[in-house]
Amino acid sequence: MDILLQLVxxxxxxxxxxxxxxxxxxxxxxxxxxxxxxxxxxxxxxxLVGLSLVGGIHGGPYMSYWLMIPLVIAFGALQGMFxxxxxxxxxxxxxxxxxxxxxxxxxxxxxKNVAENIWGKxxxxxxxxxxxxxxxxxxxxxxxxxxxxxxxxLAIMLAVELFNRKxxxxxxxxxxxxxxxxxxxxxINTGRVITFSYALSSxxxxxxxxxxxxxxxxxxxxxxxxxxxxxxxxxIGGLTSGMGAxxxxxxxxxxxxxxGYYISTGYKExxxxxxxxxxxxxxxxxxxxxxxxxxx
Length: 296
What we know:
The chain crosses the membrane at residues 6-30, 65-86, 98-115, 135-160, 196-218, 230-252. The chain has 296 residues and is mainly alpha-helical. It has helices at residues 2-32, 39-53, 65-93, 99-119, 144-166, 168-178, 180-185, 190-212, 222-237, 242-262, 270-282; strands at 124-125, 135-137, 140-142, 217-218.
């Protein structure tokens, strides 16, 4: 029972990271109907930039982990704006169905290559801001950083939801997501809203990278796998549901840790992919998603 609880807590921490990145997919899909397939690379860059800021590479400048977080978020926002400007906006302008897909994938590959040339291809340890000594909770050993990951992930998603509900610009985002054409007729600059959604999406992914880095090894290749799994979480939960991202992330995170322990680490990705196939076959809009009705 203690081992099961241990796996559950580890799975929750991992699943919340998936949920944050999946939440980023939802932000761009809601406003523009597009997805940034470089979300994983935004996470990776957030982790590596954060590692540089706290002095974990080549004895660089040292900075508090907590002071580093807002800088990483700002960097992620700028990176997301760049992706929208270079890769997505031209495709939307010419109404290309697949242009934004190839553009965001191409930019993801470029970001990965740039990261390899700047930080190298080796895996790098990220210093933890909290004690590495676990504490006992219901018989399981829980690392303080795992608790920080769960709290941080919930906090960033709650902050975005409150922003969308309470602020004027957030309401513009919601209006654009509900009906982009109608929002444009009401005087809302939908192009600027889409740019903002990409900035917010990459900012949350970069934040997730800085959160998860102390629990794992940081490298230029860490983003591809995490981004792909987060995309699976977004599909499982539904691309229109924030709650779906959380539930899907928890399901996938716990399934991976349990499978890795009870069966084999070589099969830990299998349950999530099987669930993805089942959801696509039974409820393509996701567990919490709403089926879209397209007028023709």
